[in-house]
Amino acid sequence: MRRDPQPGASGLMAAGGPVYRVAKRGLDLALAGIALAALAVPLMLVALLVRWKLGAPVLFQQERAGQDGRPFHILKFRSMTNQRQADGTLLPDAQRLTPFGIWLRSSSIDELPSLLNVLRGDLSLVGPRPLFVRYIPRYTPEQARRLEVPPGLTGWAQARGRNSLSWVEKFQFDSWYVDHRSFLLDLQIICLTALQVIRRHGISAENDATMPEFMGPNST
Q: Which end of the chain has the least Cβ crowding within 10 Å, N or C?
């Protein structure tokens, strides 16, 4: 069931209102553009390091679900090798993550190329993190509400614990964000995410190198 916006919010500034959407897109373009310009030289150095330590391609592209489930390809720096088993299947993530890859992930530097997705409009700076398209049929109706808004480079779940959260907790935070999103909340999430990155908190799920597969409503 869809919840009403916060009591007292005006029609224009309510969750998803036109003023909010324009302000949000303006913030996306301004901050993503400034960040890419300011970090151009460091990004080139990181790209050279990725090429040297992990090989080609430098950028990792993966299909994710955008708003309304529309697929797009998210861009990241590679953080894993392509080592495979004898049958040709990739080794588990934990075995393909090198110390350099772990550093890229723990510092969130691997996410910086996704700023290009923000400029293109695939992502917003803030929103539910884009997950695999194959997860969509596994969502409950409540979980599927995360697709009502543009996905984000970071989100309320990331600000509250990143991958230390269970799938259930992540989806609960995503639904809360859909109902309560606002320009001020987006700014708060950006600041809280910066603190999470500095503290390097919640990089991986417990006992997993990354995050386990979401298999449906009973996933933990």
A: N
Q: How far is CA 97 from the centre of its chain?
A: 19
Give residue-wise pLDDT tens across range 175-197.
999 999 999 999 999 999 888 88
Q: Chain centroid to CA 205: how far?
A: 15
* Residues with Cβ within 8 Å of residue 64, at least 6 apart in sequence: 71, 72, 73, 74, 130, 131, 132, 133, 151
What phi and psi values does residue 72 have, to the nearest 5 degrees?
-150, 170
pTM of the model: 0.85
* C-alpha to C-alpha distance for 86 and 99, rounded to whole angstroms: 24
How would you write the chain as a 3-class SS string?
Answer: CCCCCCCCCCCCCCCCCHHHHHHHHHHHHHHHHHHHHHCHHHHHHHHHHHHHHHCCCCEEEEEEECHHHCEEEEEEECCECCCECCCCCECCHHHHECHHHHHHHHCCHHHCCHHHHHHHCCCEEECCCCCCHHHHHHCCCCHHHHHHCCCEEECHHHHCCHHHCCHHHHHHHHHHHHHHCCHHHHHHHHHHHHHHHHHCCCCCCCCCCCCCCCCCCCCC
Give the integer Cα–Cα distance in Å for 83 and 95. 8
Sole residue written with tokens 């050279």: 48
Torsion of CA 203, 209, 215, 216, to 10 degrees: -20
